Amino acid sequence: NAGVTQTPKFQVLKTGQSMTLQCAQDMNHNSMYWYRQDPGMGLRLIYYSASEGTTDKGEVPNGYNVSRLNKREFSLRLESAAPSQTSVYFCASGAEVGSEQYFGPGTRLTVT
Amino acid sequence: EDQVTQSPEALRLQEGESSSLNCSYTVSGLRGLFWYRQDPGKGPEFLFTLYSAGEEKEKERLKATLTKKESFLHITAPKPEDSATYLCAVLGGSNYKLTFGKGTLLTVNP
């Protein structure tokens, strides 16, 4: 039982490049989330998916897109990376919207 | 807008020296208050959920309590392995969005 897994662990991009962060959970959870964590800012919600087939914007969605591929997988895409997107990205899942969330190990992204 | 303020920002204790961390919140209709522990370079680890004022939960040396305006995380006789950042989050009337505080960095010296 791996919980929530994320790939890659580290990534360096140049401004304007694109990439997709992958997330998978094996807890049969319905809801999944993407957060970013920046020094002094705390965790901020980018997008979430209440259930398979649905996605909604969180607090800071600009510059990102998401896909809920199936019940297990939720990906985050940066179409044209900017230095302001340098951050640590966490995926999380929960049994239902509003229940406690379980986090993955994070992806540390640097955009130069 | 939901708001969470954690204090102190950093706390240094000697092993065995008990203390408390504070989480003050402003939320429209509290649906739940969550405590997490985060070790450097790792994702937050779920500790507790509290739902109503007066509720208490315990896990090893940690006890979380909740009032209508704040929550406390009491650490009894801490050990160096309790060193971490402790995060508090609230779930308000929106029903989907956790609002996180900035955390308290706890260091326990042997």
Walk me through the structure.
The complex is a heterodimer of chains A (112) and B (110). The model of chain A has no long low-confidence stretch (mean pLDDT 96). Chain A is globular, with a radius of gyration of 13 Å. Chain A is an all-beta fold. Helix content of chain A is 0%, strand content 53%. In chain A, strands 2, 4, 5, 6, 9, 10 and 11 form a seven-stranded mixed beta sheet that branches. In chain A, strands 1-3-8-7 form a four-stranded antiparallel beta sheet, with no helix packed on it. Chain B is mainly β and 110 residues long. Chain B contains no helices and eleven strands. In chain B, strands 2, 4, 5, 9, 10 and 11 form a six-stranded mixed beta sheet that branches. The radius of gyration of chain B is 13 Å and the shape is globular. The model of chain B has no long low-confidence stretch (mean pLDDT 95). Chains A and B meet through strand 5 and strand 10 of A and strand 4, strand 5 and strand 9 of B.
Features:
heterodimer; A: 112 residues; mainly beta; four-stranded antiparallel beta sheet; B: 110 residues; six-stranded mixed beta sheet; five-stranded antiparallel beta sheet
Give average pLDDT of chain A, whole number. Answer: 96
User: In this structure, how is the largest beta sheet of chain B organized?
Assistant: 6 strands, mixed
What's the SSE pattern of chain A? EEEEEEEEEEE
Strand percentage of chain A lies at over 45%
Distance between the termini of chain B: 41 Å
- Rg of chain A from C-alpha positions? 13 Å
Instruction: Name the largest protein-protein interface in this structure.
Output: A-B, 23 and 22 residues
Number of strands of chain B: 11
Poorly predicted spans of chain A: none
What would the average pLDDT of chain B be, to the nearest integer? 95
User: What is the succession of H and E elements of chain B?
Assistant: EEEEEEEEEEE
| Total count of helical runs of at least 4 residues of chain B | 0
Strand content of chain B: over 45%
Helix coverage percent of chain A: under 10%
**Uncertain residue ranges of chain B:** none
